[in-house]
């Protein structure tokens, strides 16, 4: 059963720009789905519709099993500079009215799980770009979401940091049974992370290809050298090229 179903979803902004048109998409519970496509094709718009940050102009978004708890990780960490890592991770729990003691325990556990257990008292200015993004992920998982929306979260990071965060994200999603919808411009990142890759057309964005990726349960740096990975990346790259040409 689908966790989310989008049918005929379109979004036209007040400026007249149509970001997406007639978008149909089903996302199954527990899968890792990546959205790839050219800049401006509506990938981020689709995430914001799913998060209820904006409303579609037409079409429907349904949750067959009921709407789950949703976490959102943006391209920028968006941390409050006057709050420590722990206080930043605790923020969504505060907004939900969760008691401070419980919120601190959950936030501290989340920081430990992303490898920042020793940095809970650090301020954003004292953290590297990768560490800031880890705090942002901790903030999202502290709320125990069942759906995690991620909008190019690793785009600004160096390759080694990006690969490390890819591995940590897969581990967290697997351990917690989280469904992930991940926006990226990287063919290789989508091939490494995903169970499915959905390729979108240039604006207004539509689904032009839906590619299933047969992944091993455990992935590591060595997987990037396998014919299976290279094959998957080739299929995604070809679909993206066809979308751009069309």
What does this protein structure show overall?
The protein is α/β, with parallel strands linked by helices. It has 2 domains: 2-68 and 147-245, P-loop containing nucleotide triphosphate hydrolases (Rossmann fold, 3-Layer(aba) Sandwich), CATH 3.40.50; 79-145, no CATH class. 37% of the residues lie in helices and 23% in strands. It contains 7 helices and 9 strands. The protein has helices at 43-50, 85-95, 100-113, 129-142, 159-176, 187-193, 227-245; strands at residues 2-12, 18-28, 32-36, 58-62, 70-73, 147-151, 179-183, 196-200, 207-212. Strands 5-6-7-3-8-9 form a 6-stranded mixed beta sheet, with helices on both faces. Strands 2-1-4 form a 3-stranded antiparallel beta sheet, covered by helices on one side. Strand 6 (147-151), helix 5 and strand 7 (179-183) form a beta-alpha-beta unit. It is globular and about 50 Å long. The two termini are 32 Å apart. The model has no long low-confidence stretch (mean pLDDT 93).
Question: What's the topology here?
Answer:
Blueprint (H helix, E strand, L loop, with lengths): L1 E11 L5 E11 L3 E5 L6 H8 L7 E5 L7 E4 L11 H11 L4 H14 L15 H14 L4 E5 L7 H18 L2 E5 L3 H7 L2 E5 L6 E6 L14 H19 L1
Parallel strand pairs: 3-7, 3-8, 5-6, 6-7
Antiparallel strand pairs: 1-2, 1-4, 8-9
Helix pairs in contact: 2-3, 2-4, 3-4, 6-7
